[in-house]
Amino acid sequence: QVQLVESGGGSVQPGGSLRLSCVASGSISSINAMAWYRQAPGKQRELVALISSGGVTQYGNSVKGRFTISGDTDKNTMYLQMNSLEPGDTAVYYCNAGTYSEYGYYGGHWGQGTQVTVAS
């Protein structure tokens, strides 16, 4: 089992920035990729960004050019730098971990989520 703990959420004004962190522990050897998802009230959970151990990154269309995903393997930590935040980015952000291959990504491990609120 893999445990995931997020931090860094909070409230920010439009145009501001936040950095989320996710620390993984447990059966780390069973995963080779991590991702951020988010879920806004009344909406489905959506992929925000993904990073694999091989350096592959993917972003949701709505965050391209504004968000950057990165990882520190020595610290088993993944980050999401969020710039130029918009009210539409308001959601609970979830850390996710799993396996990435030529067939796609399967993330079976979830964190508890951290709230991000963008409002003036």
How would you describe the overall organization of this protein?
This protein has 120 residues and is mostly beta strands. Strands 2, 4, 5, 6, 9, 10 and 11 form a 7-stranded mixed β-sheet that branches. The chain is globular and about 40 Å long.
Number of helices: 0
Protein structure class: mainly beta
Largest sheet: 7 strands, mixed
Low-confidence stretches: none
Structural Rg: 14 Å
Integer average pLDDT: 96
The CA-CA distance between the termini, in Å, is 40 Å
Helicity range of the residues?
A: under 10%
Q: Kindly estimate the percentage of residues that lie in beta strands according to DSSP.
A: over 45%
User: What is the N-to-C succession of helices and strands?
Assistant: EEEEEEEEEEE
Gross morphology is globular
Report the count of strand segments. 11
Set out the fold topology.
Blueprint: E1 2-7, E2 10-12, E3 18-26, E4 33-39, E5 46-52, E6 57-59, E7 67-72, E8 77-82, E9 91-101, E10 104-110, E11 114-118
